[in-house]
Design a protein that fits this description.
Elements: E1 22-28, H1 36-46, E2 47-56, H2 67-84, H3 90-94, H4 121-128, H5 132-141
Parallel strand pairs: 1-2
Helix pairs in contact: 2-5
Amino acid sequence: MNNPNHIFQGSCEKLPIEDCSVDVITAIQAAHYFDLPAFFSEVDRALKPGGIIGMAGITLPICTDSATLNSAATKLCWDIISEHGFPDKVTLIENNYKDLPVPFPGSRQEFSVEIVSEWKLQDFVDHCLTFSPVNTMLKSLG
């Protein structure tokens, strides 16, 4: 590989890279879409010895000004995700992939990053509109 800092994009089940050719593979807020056995097989094939797989989930925004609004918004989001998105993987998403069965012994390192931002209600609504289950629901409603 001529460019040591090249970024590749492709299907996670068939990565467009050579065997044992990369140091890092990342997947952010995406594992619930994957055929996980096929993905982990590709990770095992593509990573160099000692390579790193980085996977992270993103939590729902938290409204610090109103516990009532926060509770209602969170419930609504999880209800939509459960019904219109990934009913079999809600817990996986909700726990930020902490329960993801990673088949690489000793590879799990958990950490969290908190981003604090002030949003108006419309900002929260706009954020929720980026969720594929929300868009699936809206399409189903016509």
